[in-house]
Design a protein that fits this description.
1 helix; mainly alpha; 95% helix; 110 residues
Amino acid sequence: MEANRSQNGIQQLLAAEQEAQQIVNAARNAKMARLRQAKEEAEKEIADYRAQVEYEFQKKVAESSGDSGANVKRLEIETDEKINHLKNEAARISHDVVGMLLKNVTTVRN
């Protein structure tokens, strides 16, 4: 009877050990599945973020290249205005400059 009880105790210990091993394996499998899921979610988030940043970049490029024509036009207008201003100033003072040059060239100093 004592041997039967010992044998029964050993069988219970073996069964408990197997059950514990199954629980550990199930936990390990669940952990691995969760890690795979987390990795997939992270990769999706990264792809979404990259797509968003790329979209914003392309949008800025399109806006700036669209504005380049406007910028060229604005610069041409400003340049024309400055040229006209310089021509007007030159025409306004050219008579005085020519007179001053003639006076200095024709004046004899001892």
